[in-house]
Amino acid sequence: MPKFMFLQRSGEECAKERSPKEMQQSMQVWGAWMSEGLSAGWLLDPGDALQPGGKVLQRDGTVTDGPFAESKELVGGYCMIEAEDLEAATARALSMPDTGGVVEIRQLAGHSME
Amino acid sequence: MTSPNPEGRPPEPPQLVEHFFRHESAILVSVLTRAFGVHSLDLVEDAVQEALLAAVQAWSRRGVPDNPAGWIYRVARNRILDTIRRQKIHQRVTAQLNSVEAFESRVEEWLQEERLPDSLLRMMFVCCHPTLDRRSQIALTLKILCGFSVAEVARALLISREAAKKRVQRAKKTLAATQIQLELPSSGELPARLEAVHDVLYLLFNEGYSSTLGHEPLRDDLCEEAARLSHMLCEYSGLSTPESRALLALMLAHAARLEARVDSGGNVVLLEDQDRSRWDRPLIHHAQQWFERSKTDPPSRFHLEAGIALTHSLATNIDDTDWQLIVQLYDRLIALHDSPVYILNRAVARAELGDVELGLAELMSIRNHSQMRHYILLDCAIGRLHERAGNPDAAATAYTAARSAATAPHEQALLDRKLARLTAEAPAICSVAARAVQGEKI
Predict the structure, then answer these.
(1) How many domains does chain A have?
(2) Does A14 touch chain B (CB under 8 A)?
(3) Which residue of A35, A45, A46 is in closest CB contact with B13?
(4) Contact between chains at A34 and B59 (C-beta distance less than 8 A)
(5) Which residue out of A3, A25, A27 would a mutagenesis test of the B interface target, given it has the greatest number of B Cβ atoms within 10 Å?
(6) Residue A56 in 3-state DSSP?
(7) Could you tell me which residues are beta bridge partners of residue A43?
(8) Is A62 contained in some domain?
C-alpha cells in the first residue's frame, strides 16, 4: 500500500500563547488519534516534532541559521501513514485533530529497485 | 515510559488527572521562581511553557511517562539553565544558588508533594503584594497560580486581551523592580497581607459565580481554582485563620449550587427557580464543617455571607427558608460594608417575610446607585416583589424594563422566561407581557 508523510506546518507564535488547559486537551485528542492509528495499523510511525531552530547549508559551503521560511510555513512535526491513494490519505489527514496550522500530504515515491 | 511505535506496540492511551497541566504549571512556576528569584519570573514562565509544549508533542506520540511531573520539571530546568548560560546572567543567578547541584537538591525537596503548598502560598503572597493594585493582583493570580493564559485571563475578567496582557506585564515589571523574595510575610505584616489574599480569592470566586455573566465552563474553573487555593490556605498551619475558613465555607456553599444554576438548555436559573435536588449535598456538608471551624467574634463579612449561603443551602424550598435569619445577617453585613447588592438581597428577604412594601421601597432607594446601573438583577428583584404582592402589571413593567436593558442573550432569555411565566399565570396582563416578550419597549 502507498505510504504518505504528513508534514505539519504551523506558527510558533500561537503555540506560545496556548494555555495549560488547551495544551492538555490537545495532548489528549492527539494521543487518541495516534493510538487509534497505531492499533488500526494505518499509522506507520507517529513521527516526531521538530525543534524550531537549525542551520541552512548552501552548496557553496555557507552556513546560516534557520528559520528557512516564513514562520507560519515552518515544518513543526511529521508522521507516516499508509493509505489506498492520495484521496484516502487526504481523508485521513482530515481526521487529525485541528490544533491550528496546515497539513501537507506527500506520497513517498517508493520506486522499485527491481 | 511506554515504548515508541516502530517496534509495533501501540502506546497506552494518555491518562492524566484533570487540570494536570494547569496545576503543574502553577507548581513549577512557583518552585522555580523561588529558586531563581522574582526577577526571573518571565524566564521561568517561558521555560515552563516550553516544557508543557514538549510534553504535548512527546506524550501524544509515545504515551504519558511514569512520572509526568518529573518529566516536565526536567525539561523546564534544562531550558532555564541553557538560557542562563546563553544570556550570561549565570553569575548573578549562581551567586544566589552557590551551584547547580545545590540548587537541584533544594528544588527537588520543594517539589515533594507535601512541600508544594509552601511554594504555592509564597507565590500567592507575591501575586497579592501590596505594591500591586487589586486588579493586577487578580490578573497575576489567575495567570500564575491558576495557570490561565492571557486570553483566558481576559475572558475570565471580561476585559480585552490587550488589557489583560498589559495588566500582567506591568505587574511582573513592578514585582521585578521591588526585589521582593518568595517568602511568607512576617507575623507583624501577616494580618494585612492575608486580608489582601482573602480579598483576591473572594473576588476571583465572585467573578466566576456571578450569575449576570452567563454560563461558560471557564467561569466554573474560576470558582474551582479560588476554592482550591482557599482550601490550601486553610490546611496550612499559621495561615489558616477563622476568616480563611469562613471564606472557604462561603465558596463551598455557593459551589454546591453551581450545577443547578444552569438548566439542560444552558439557561441561567436564579435561586428561586432552581431544582434543589441538583444541589451538591456532600459539598454543602463540607461547607458546614468548615463553617463550624471558623467561629470567631466579631464575625467577618465572610462569616456573615457564609451564614447566608448556608441558610439557603439548608432550606428545602423558598418558603421553608429562614428569611428572618437572613435579614439579620444582611443587617450586620450592611453595618460592616454598605453595598447596594446587600441592600437588594435584604429587600428580597424582607419581602419573603411579608414586608413587600418596605422591600420595594428599599429597592427603589438604590435604583440610582452607580453600581446598580445596568444591573438587571435589580429590575428582576423589583418584578419579583411586585409578583409577590399580587401586582402582575407592575411586575411585567419591571421585567420589561430589565428586558430592554439586557444586552447579553442569556439575560434576555432569562427575562423572556420570567415574562412568559407571568403571562401563563395571569392572562389579564397577557397583552403587556406578550409585547414585552417580543422585545418591544412599553
Answers:
(1) 1
(2) no
(3) A35
(4) no
(5) A27
(6) strand
(7) A81
(8) yes
Q: Is residue A75 part of a domain?
A: yes
List A102's β-bridge partners, or say none.
Answer: A9
Query: Between the CA of residue A102 and those of A29, A91, A96, A99, B120, what are the distances in Å?
Result: 17, 14, 11, 9, 39
- Is residue A112 one of the residues assigned to a domain? no
Question: Span B328-334, mean pLDDT?
Answer: 97
The residue type found at A41 is: G
The model's pLDDT over B399-431, given as tens digits with 9 standing for 90+, comes to 998 888 887 777 888 889 889 988 876 554 444
Interface contact flag, B25 A20, Cβ < 8 Å = yes
Note the ipTM here. 0.89
pTM across the whole model: 0.85
Give residue B435's pLDDT band: very low, low, confident or very high (50, 70, 90): very low
Distance CA B169, CA B164 (A): 9
Which chain B residues are within 8 Å of A27, Cβ to Cβ?
Answer: 14, 16, 21, 55-56, 59-60
Main-chain phi, psi angles of A2, to 5 degrees? -60, 145
Assigned domain for A59 exists: yes
**Confidence label for B433 from pLDDT (cuts 50, 70 and 90):** very low
- Of the candidates B14, B149, B221, the beta carbon closest to that of A28 is on B14
Res. B187: pLDDT tops 60: yes
- From chain A, the residues in CB contact with B147 under 8 A are 19-21
Q: Map residue A112 onto helix, strand or coil.
A: coil
Angle at B140 between CA B374 and CA B150, to 5 degrees: 75
Widest Cα–Cα separation across chain B: 83
* Residue A79 three-state SS: strand
Chain B residues in contact with A49 by the CB 8 A cut-off are: 54, 57-58
Per CB-CB distance under 8 Å, the chain B contacts of A8 are none
pLDDT tens, position by position, A66-106: 766 666 678 889 999 999 999 999 999 999 988 778 899 99
Helix spans in B293-427 (H): 301-314, 323-336, 340-352, 356-365, 376-388, 392-405, 409-425
**What pLDDT, on a 0 to 100 scale, did the predictor assign at position B431?**
45
**SS3 state at B171:** helix
Please give the pLDDT value at position A71.
Answer: 63
CATH value at residue A87:
3.30.70.1060
List pLDDT tens digits, range B292-328: 999 999 999 999 999 999 999 999 988 899 999 999 9
Count CB neighbours of B281 within 10 A: 10
User: Alpha carbon of B309 to those of B24, B147, B337, B345: distances in Å?
Assistant: 32, 28, 17, 12
| CA–CA distance, B27 with B117 (Å, rounded to integer) | 9
**Helix, strand or coil, per DSSP, at residue A106:** strand
Is the sign of the CA dihedral B137, B246, B215, B273 positive or negative? negative
* 3-state SS assignment for residue B104: helix
Decide if A53 touches B, using CB distance below 8 A.
no
Query: What's the whole-number mean pLDDT along residues B430-440?
Result: 44
**Domain limits for position A12:** 3-107
Which position has the grid cell 419597549?
B441
Q: Say if CB B213 and CB B258 are below 8 A apart.
A: no
